[in-house]
Amino acid sequence: MPLKWVLHWQPNAGSTVNSQILNEVSQCVESIHGVKGGKWKATLTFYKPILRDQNSPAAEFPRDFLGISLPEQPNKYYLIIRGQRIVLEADFTIQAIMEKLQSYKLRVALNFEGFQYQLGDFQLRVGKVVPNNSENLRGIVMEIEYLPISSMEKSRQIMDEFFDVWQEAMSKSSLPGRFMHIESNFAEYGLSDFYTPQHTAVQYGNVMAQLIATVQAVQSARN
Description:
9 strands, globular, Hypothetical Protein Pfu-838710-001, Mediator_Med20, activator, transcription regulation, alpha+beta
């Protein structure tokens, strides 16, 4: 599977994300000759356990976990237990099974959706982060996918160089923020150098944590 970085938009202190920033990011991709393709969408869901017996020890259950569906793997569903550093691949029907068992309940669902662009050996996906059944913008994400290589180590220099080119192109827009790439410790999840969809799931879990931290920081500043 092609290697991928998942980045999130980090607004400058005192600023927030808005649709104008998303539009300008898309225009920036086109300015470096990105060819616009079709739409894409990934959905990340935050689950909490349903404890019917209050005397039952909560330690028997993961306190919470994330589930994510990826556009490139429509028949699969990925489960991430961040506390125990576990990532699992399941059939997409696991969602219906979980609903019938009623052992976990959905707390929050976020949609990552936008357009994808082709740029030589790279594929970029730029999208907004919105709660399910809402248009309230919560963040902006970008995927950078390098199609020829699946080894993270072998592609590192190429990805770094492309990211530098991208940051330079973005700097011309003078937007109040920048895209951040947070290095994920895939080894903690038992993942190897060879890139898989589980690597993407872990990155989205980390991006969600960063988005939550950004929202909380903005709220604290307002208070």
